[in-house]
Design brief:
Strand content: 15-25%
Number of domains: 2
Number of helices: 10
CATH superfamily of the largest domain: Periplasmic binding protein-like II
CATH topology of the largest domain: D-Maltodextrin-Binding Protein, domain 2
CATH architecture of the largest domain: 3-Layer(aba) Sandwich
CATH class of the largest domain: Alpha Beta
Number of strands: 14
Radius of gyration: 27 Å
Structural class: alpha/beta
Oligomer: single chain
Order of helices and strands: HEEEEEHEHEEEEHHEHEHEEHHH
């Protein structure tokens, strides 16, 4: 009896390890960590979680018969959330560049640039015009690191009067609207949405840095990474992912990941023994005896 119970427990454990998803009452949960103030990738509207990445994640969960759990996180606590098992992945405009060895990454699925949002009335026309200005960035983002000491754009950052770090982009844009800062360096997708919502804003024509987005999983969790990535590729192949993209990017398909059709499972076929002369004679004798 104890051996049987131990065997069942071991099997359940292996299933959980293989899928990487948390278990609850016999069902699999897929918990996605995201920044809830990062439109169009993830945000809150009328009390509901919406966004491009969240819709992709919902479809991935649906196709794998997982229960999806969308968990807003503090961006500077994302590693703690992932390593503690509170979330299964970080999926929300998550930049691969500079973090290549810190996570199990999916293939890049979106090209992204870091740009600068300013007020049209500011008179700032290009990056050079940021000299002596106060510029805001979100905490723990590639653009913050690029503009800071030893970053790839340190020289540009040194021209600013001050580089302000805020908890999220909503705060940064509110500071811009209030006049507390002169510009916000941010992801182009978010900047485009903010400029669309508020005609007083404009995006400078030059990019600060370019990068790619991926889905980040805990180191070693390649099983879940592969399951999610393969499902996303199926969604690209059948056009579902493009429809989700069009919903959030004015009809455009921003996905760069290549599609792949799901392979049919191999069908086991029983081996058939070759028919020998002796077998034929035995069969004929049996038929004769039966009166056939």
């Amino acid at each position: 009896m104890w051996k049987k119970m131990l065997s069942i427990a071991v099997c359940a454990f292996l299933v959980c390890v293989f899928t990487g998803c948390s278990e609850d009452k016999g069902g699999k949960k897929f918990t996605v960590g995201f920044d809830s103030s990062f439109p169009p990738y993830g945000y809150v509207e009328k009390g509901e979680f919406k966004g491009f990445d969240l819709d992709l994640a919902r479809e991935v969960a649906k196709r794998n018969s997982w229960e999806i759990v969308l968990r807003p996180i503090n961006w500077d606590a994302k590693d703690m959330e992932l390593n503690s098992g509170s979330i299964d992945c970080i999926w929300n405009g998550f930049t691969i560049n500079g973090r290549e060895n810190s996570y199990e990454w999916s293939e890049p699925y979106v090209d992204n640039s870091q740009v600068v949002l300013v007020k049209k009335s500011s008179g700032i026309k290009n990056l050079a015009g940021l000299k002596g200005k106060v510029v805001a960035v979100q905490t723990d983002t590639p653009v913050q690191k690029a503009l800071s000491a030893k970053g790839s754009k340190e020289a540009l950052g040194k021209t600013f009067k001050k580089l302000i770090v805020t908890p999220n982009y909503n705060n940064a844009v509110m500071e811009l609207e209030a006049g507390s800062v002169d510009a916000v360096a941010m992801d182009i997708g978010v900047a485009q949405m903010k400029a669309k919502e508020n005609k007083a804003f404009v995006i400078l024509p030059e990019t600060v840095i370019t990068e790619k987005y991926g889905i980040g999983f805990k180191k070693g969790n390649t099983a879940l990474r592969d399951a999610v990535q393969n499902t996303l590729k199926e969604m690209v192949a059948d056009g579902t992912a493009a429809k989700i993209s069009a919903k959030y990017f004015d009809g455009r398909n921003v996905l760069i990941i290549k599609g792949a059709v799901k392979k049919a499972p191999a069908v086991a076929v029983k081996a058939v023994a070759p028919v020998t002369n002796a077998m034929k004679k035995a069969q004929q004798a049996a038929e004769k005896a039966a009166g056939k």
